[in-house]
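Reviewers of the previous submission asked for a worked example of the structure-prediction workflow described in the proposal, so we include one complete record here. The input consisted solely of the amino acid sequence. No template or homolog information was supplied to the procedure at any stage.
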Amino acid sequence: MRVLLVTHAYPPTLGGVPVLTQDLAWGLASAGDEVHVCAREADPGRGEGTRRSEWDTAPAGAVGRVRLHWINHLGSRALDYADGYRARSLHPVLSELIDEVQPDLAHVQHLTHLSLELPELLAARGVRVLLTLHDFWIQCHRGQLLDTDYALCRGPTPERCARCLSIQGTGAPLPEALGPEWPSVADALQLVRTREADARRACAHVDLFLTASADARRRFVAWGLPAERVRQLPYGHAPRPPVEPRRGGRAGPLRVGFLGSLLQSKGPDLAIRAIGRLPSGAARLEIWGGVAPHYHFDVRYADALPWLLEQGHVRFHGPASREEVARRLPELDLLIVPSIWPETGPLVVGEAFLAGVPCLVSDLGGAAELVQEGLGGLQFRAGDAADLERVLRRLLAEPELLASLRATIPPVGTLAERLQRLREHYAQVCASPRLPLRVAAVVVDCGTPDETAATVQALLAGERRPDQVVVVDNGGGAGPRLRELLPAEVSLLEAGSNLGFAGGANLGARAALAAGAQRLLFVNSDAVLAPDALARLEAEAERLHAGLAGPVITSAGRVESLGIEFDLRSGRAQLRQHGAEPERLAGLESHAVDALSGCVLWVRSDLFVGLGGFAEAFFFGFED
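From that input alone, the workflow returned the following structure tokens.
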């Protein structure tokens, strides 16, 4: 199988997702798969949106080869808020990579710093798509379900997300993409509604979602992902040399470790404060991790860290490689995982268990699933330094408790087990029928409600009914009559004023895309489709991998259009076969043309989005 892994970061960058992606890449390569990795890098010395490719360095014992494709993207150059996550400037290089690799399947690890619209680019080329949900970035623009007060969000809604976006920056330079000042709540509300619609459209192109914890699965299903397409798959770990069991009691201070990025969401300050309240010399905190300059442009935590790290009971070692982590963990009595966000499955817990080290974890998310009370570790209330202090004092008062926790460390899932289950998921996805493409028809009414109703009736009576029909009342005042004539299943939008055909069509398309449309069918309000028209049009367009397609248009017993010819020298356009008798076209096969009439126009949604829709400056005519 030819597999394309997609990630926002890859070693030598440290972190959970980069490490997991590299382990997965080499595990698949060792099993005989052809593996390509698309990873983002940010090199100011290279051109934006450029690609460089190289072979990854094989880890010890690995076989096969892994091809790396680095996409250079400096996120600070986003044109606006939406461009920050859409990154359409990357679409050409991403599309070129997909066409070159031609993967059977793409397994996306993360889309941040790449493009939220990448699943659509993949699906449009017939590539099956899996997405592992390592965090909550798809539904939460801050990624970890923490609001600006670092309280756990009760669940993303446009109103809550707008409040976070409008006040999220504190002290850091404002990103240029948001303009000269932070957006108002009203402006932010529109921004997050657009992002949510974009995210749901992206999810419509994903065949299967994976996540490491039952808690994360529950949260994503509650957000609206289909339960049958979200499966739990815990992380796995590469084998480690067996750890010699400790003998005798503990001598000296309790040796406690923290491993991870020094972000407020990870809670290192909780560990520092809790241990600082213990009797002097009772415990020592060893910290490995990198210091982030800000958390979503909030620098207050980063500014306070130097003072915290200088406390006498703290030893700060900076970032650590995988090898150093494996070497240092067995030296600890205990590892603390004090995250205040619901991590999906913190890898450090498995690493600690493999080293024979018990864990103290917050009672939240995947960490609480990995460490059940009294089995290899203990829990404390998330975000509560006093409760963490209580648990640490218990460990000091009960010397035998550590040995008991070490003796009850549960088995750790292996990388080989995870790879086996992953490859089973890959095989099932590739063998299953493709997700049916969602086609939405858009009809712009210009004050002719009876004709529009006839157009809609023909669409709904066809052999292939559109999955959604959107009618736009384009300022013609026909809204009340349209509501009488149209079936309840039809979405009716009020433009409020005459936006022109281009503006009205774009308005309807935005609504259809927000509902997950993968193909758009624009139909004039006086056009009546033959019963088999959409089915044949869709089948031919998909067979030919077309971006746009149109049928033969007839009027009054004559051919109106067989596509459009365009002369680049003169700039003139004319309708092909205009006025011809339809009988003369018998046996004519599908073929390429210079342009198509907007009277009935089938468009791939990723192409429509990438082009920005119809050019509204034309208002009426020539926009097609």
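Confidence is low (pLDDT under 50) at residues 168-175. We consider this example representative of the routine output the project will generate in years two and three.
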